[in-house]
Specification:
The protein is α+β, with helices and mostly antiparallel strands and about 190 residues long. It has a single domain, classed as Heat Shock Protein 90 (2-Layer Sandwich), CATH 3.30.565. The protein contains six helices and seven strands. A seven-stranded antiparallel beta sheet has the order 1-6-5-4-7-3-2, with helices on one face. A hairpin with a 3-residue loop joins strand 2 and strand 3. It is globular, with a radius of gyration of 17 Å.
Length: about 190
């Protein structure tokens, strides 16, 4: 098991997310579903170039609810431990303070500029897990866990198929997002594609 701190050049990314994105909690679902769709599109692209030769199968992105969790699942390209380190743990924040001040009234610009789509999960979740397996042959599945502090863990796990499951453990003050009608309405609003 690996332990470490998420690499940010500010003291802590999470208060920034809460402060600047607070008014629009519901966008977390749009961002995570969009990431999942991107992962499946990347797999299609690799297949069209002959870089992925396996069966693509069902590429539907699935959103499922449990008593206290929301899970967004895809069968896209997945991630290796090294890719988690590069794309999840290292957040580029050069010039962040100037940019945040300039665009403080436009949360979508902030999210898009810094690639914070994944981190919008922490607006509604007290803990987030990624269970992922790369499409690459002989890839080791891994689980990344973070509780909303800069600390994370990565460990090897078993996962039968490629792709990613993003599991959000919903905060007590955001339980509305565990209601099927609420999630269905958000999926219709943001993800009709």
């Amino acid at each position: 098991m690996q332990k470490g701190n998420i690499g940010v050049t500010t003291e802590n990314i999470f208060p920034i997310i809460k402060k600047f994105l607070y008014s629009d909690h519901e966008i977390f679902l749009r961002e995570l579903v969009s990431n999942a769709v991107d992962a499946t599109q990347k797999l299609k692209t690799l297949a069209s170039k002959g870089e992925f030769k396996g069966e693509m199968g069902d590429l539907t992105v699935k959103v499922s609810l449990n008593a206290d969790t929301i899970t967004i699942s895809d069968r896209g390209i997945g991630l290796t431990a090294e890719e988690i380190e590069k794309y999840i743990n290292q957040i580029a924040f050069s010039g962040a303070n100037d940019f945040l001040e300039k665009y403080k009234d436009d949360t979508n610009a902030i999210i898009g500029h810094f690639g914070l789509g994944f981190y919008s999960a922490f607006m509604v979740a007290k803990k987030v897990e990624i269970i992922t397996k790369s499409y690459r042959e002989d890839a080791q599945a891994v689980k990344w866990t973070c509780d909303g502090s800069p600390e994370f863990t990565i460990e090897d796990v078993e996962k039968a198929d490629r792709g990613s499951d993003i599991i959000l453990y919903i905060d007590d003050d955001c339980k509305e997002f565990l209601e099927e009608a609420r999630i269905s309405a958000l999926l219709t609003k943001y993800c009709r594609f």
